[in-house]
Design a protein that fits this description.
The chain is of the alpha/beta class. The chain contains 11 helices and 22 strands. Helix 3 crosses helix 4 (about 135-140) and helix 3 (about 110-120) runs parallel beside helix 5. Bound molecules: guanosine-5'-diphosphate, 6-O-phosphoryl inosine monophosphate and magnesium ion.
């Protein structure tokens, strides 16, 4: 059996968590392949709401196994907290969770290095979630990292202290005082103790050689869905560098983040919002810095799932969407948060950019520095509530036209339309 991939086509928060949960009954294994607790994936059903950071969004279906792959970086403190929260709500998280021995750890000092690096950038800060993502991936590629499989090793404490002390010296270089910093509301040394306790607990979770686990499962005919975190425009290679995250968020990341061959990838589900949002700094050509943007933020409750920061909002950007479809090889589109556009009488969609007076339909090398201007096409809004709709034939005509417009301009079918945050508010 093959693996299907679901990932974000914009700047993250497209609604990946919701739709993974909806699709989980069709799969045996849901696997995260990159990112870490910078992710915040929201799932709503039966009047309950959960936000997952590290655990794959298949966890609410007791039949599915959930795998955290080698490409993910794990903060054991956050992971344990997440498992406890789920167990408190009656969900058997630890039982259905498998973790790659090769996944790297986020140390408390990685989080401080993240904060120090951001502070040193001043106005040019990335707007990181401050979960230690950049520093932890840097240690991985710099070959200094510590992995989940090391947590049960008797030399773990030494490995930890050695790396922590290197970080401490780096923090001095930044003039950053660890003793004056709180992590999760605790002074550094207290948090460090809690973190080390979490490492002991994490070492007792189901650790696996995930590349063997997943390939054997596929050989046995099991169905696997890879769940992306962040979005294509935050990819370390293809995003709006340097305003990106530190992993490959695109479909290529599935191969290195899980150990599956490219030939095993079947469908690539590209998830996008009917408009655009971005949280953190960096270019956003169709951003609305006005009352319309504010209206989108209010209607879409656009505040970060991980940090609570207000998300920047703007119109759908087809130049960026087509770029993401190309990089990922998207075979089906899932349009999310469609209901959020209901209050708008007229909708705009950017189909091209004006770059130094020249019309283009490609993303420029550095669209942070070279300011591009969106060229808009205006489309009629449906201007009526749609959260209660459950089938395509109930869609108002302007919504059907909006979908057709997207399909025509991308050449990819829109197979799911989400009309509300709840599991049930989904038209397939
Ligand atoms: P993810 O990171 O891609 O999983 O997305 P987030 O969970 O960070 O952000 C998506 C937000 O939109 C969450 O609050 C979801 O509950 C919510 N959401 C998802 N789909 C829809 C939808 O179709 N309509 C509305 N109104 N909200 C949605
Ligand atoms: P999900 O999986 C939206 C953004 C941050 C910042 C940049 C770098 O929920 O879609 P990092 O902490 O990775 O160093 O931050 O990336 N970012 C996200 N934005 N959704 C996410 O994840 C994000 N993860 C990171 O805001 O701009
Ligand atoms: Mg999110």
């Amino acid at each position: 059996m093959n693996i299907d991939v679901l990932l974000g086509l914009q700047w993250g928060d497209e609604g990946k968590g919701k739709i993974v949960d909806v699709l989980t009954p069709r799969y045996d294994i849901i696997a995260r392949f990159q990112g870490g607790p910078n992710a915040g994936h929201t799932i709503e059903f039966d009047g309950k709401k959960f936000i997952l950071h590290l655990i794959p969004s298949g966890i609410f279906n007791p039949r599915a196994k959930n795998l955290i792959g080698n490409g993910v970086i794990i903060d054991p403190f956050i992971l344990l907290k997440e498992i406890k929260n789920l167990e408190g709500a009656g969900i058997e998280a630890a039982n259905n969770l498998l973790i790659s021995r090769k996944a790297h750890l986020i140390l408390p000092t990685h989080r401080m290095l993240d904060a120090a690096s951001e502070a040193s950038r001043g106005k040019e800060k990335i707007g990181s979630t401050l979960k230690g993502i950049g520093p932890a991936y840097s240690d991985k590629t710099g070959r200094n990292g510590i992995r989940m499989g090391d947590t049960g090793h008797k030399g773990f404490k030494d490995m930890y202290e050695k790396l922590r002390d290197i970080h401490m010296r780096r923090l001095e270089f930044y003039d950053f005082d660890p003793s004056g910093t709180e992590l999760d509301g605790l002074p550094f040394r207290e948090y460090e103790q809690k973190w080390l306790e979490a490492v002991v607990s994490a070492s007792k979770l189901k650790l696996v050689d995930s590349e063997y686990y997943i390939n054997r499962a596929m050989q046995q005919g099991k169905k696997v869905l890879a769940e992306g975190a962040q979005g294509t425009l935050l990819d370390i290679d293809f995003g709006s560098y340097p305003y990106v995250t530190s992993s490959n968020t695109v479909s290529a990341g599935v191969c290195s983040g899980l150990g599956v061959a490219p030939s095993k990838i079947r469908e690539v589900f590209g998830v996008f919002k009917a408009y655009c949002t971005r949280v953190g700094s960096g270019p956003f050509p169709t951003e609305l810095d006005d009352a319309e943007g504010e209206k989108m933020r209010k209607e879409g409750r656009e505040y970060g799932s991980t940090t609570g920061r207000p998300r920047r909002c703007g119109w759908l950007d087809m130049v960026a969407l087509n770029y993401a479809i190309m990089i990922n090889g998207v075979t089906q589109l899932f349009m999310m948060k469609t209901d959020v556009l209901s209050p708008f009488e007229k909708l705009k969609v950017s189909t091209q950019y004006k770059d130094s007076g020249r019309i283009t339909d490609t993303l420029p090398f550095d669209y942070g520095r070279e300011k591009v201007e969106p060229v808009y096409r205006e489309l009629p809004g449906w201007n009526t509530g749609i959260q209660h709709l459950r089938s395509v034939d109930q869609f108002p005509a302007p919504l059907t036209s909006y979908i057709s417009f997207i399909e025509e301009h991308t050449g990819v079918p829109v197979r799911i339309v989400s009309v509300g945050p709840d599991r049930e508010q989904t038209v397939i």
